[in-house]
Amino acid sequence: MSDTLAAPADFALDVKHSRFLAQAAPVASAADAQAFVAATGDPDATHNCWAWRVGDAYRSSDDGEPAGTAGRPILAAIDGQGCDRVAVVVTRWYGGIKLGAGGLVRAYGGAAAECLRRATRVPIVAMRELDVRAGFDDLGAVHAALAGFGAEKLEERFDARGVRLRLALPLDRADALRAHLRDATRDRVQVAVAAAGGG
């Protein structure tokens, strides 16, 4: 199971008079990651190199450093630390001494890895969305069950027959909630896996 960050983190490193600042943040999507990258770099710095991973999607940039010496080592640090849904920007202010390809790989990858190592992390919990339809008589039983199973109410709509709820809860609790509601309401509550995109 992968981790993401509980909060943004940073780590500074000096290598032969060049200053490196790694900044990392949790991101929920590729768009979030790109927004973090755009907002985090320092336009006055020599380079703003970055990488991010969100599930199977990932990107990286050397931002003018020799190919493969910055973005890929940052991405390797993300993967090596077992992180997901994370973006990292490593900013470099050049100090006048060339580091060579190996030195750049170590500096960018090392700054990113240490930043992630020091960050407070939280496990990524697989979630499942459920649609629940219940009559008015069963509302109390349904609402009582939500807290016990760690379910979050995403949507609640009432009509003449009762209520329709869209819930999100940890995947490993979905079947237990379904069984609990079936038993608690004598199978009057309908529970279905929510269709992607809602509606």
What does this molecule look like?
By secondary structure, the chain is of the alpha+beta class. The protein has two domains: about 5-125, 2-Layer Sandwich (Ribosomal Protein S5, domain 2); about 125-195, 2-Layer Sandwich (Alpha-Beta Plaits), CATH 3.30.70. The protein is about 30% helix and about 35% strand. It has helices at about 30-40, 70-80, 100-120, 140-150, 170-185; strands spanning about 5, 10-15, 20-25, 45-55, 55-60, 85-95, 120-125, 125-135, 150-160, 160-170, 190-195. The strands form three sheets. A five-stranded antiparallel sheet has the order 2-3-6-4-5, with helices on both faces. A four-stranded antiparallel sheet has the order 9-10-8-11. A hairpin with a 2-residue loop joins strand 2 and strand 3 (about 20-25). Helix 2 (about 70-80) packs parallel to helix 3 and helix 4 packs antiparallel against helix 5.
Helices and strands in order:
Blueprint (H helix, E strand, L loop, with lengths): L2 E3 L3 E7 L2 E9 L3 H11 L6 E8 L2 E5 L9 H10 L5 E8 L6 H19 L2 E3 L3 E8 L4 H10 L3 E8 L2 E9 H14 L5 E4 L6
Antiparallel strand pairs: 1-7, 2-3, 3-6, 4-5, 4-6, 8-10, 8-11, 9-10
Helix pairs in contact: 2-3, 4-5
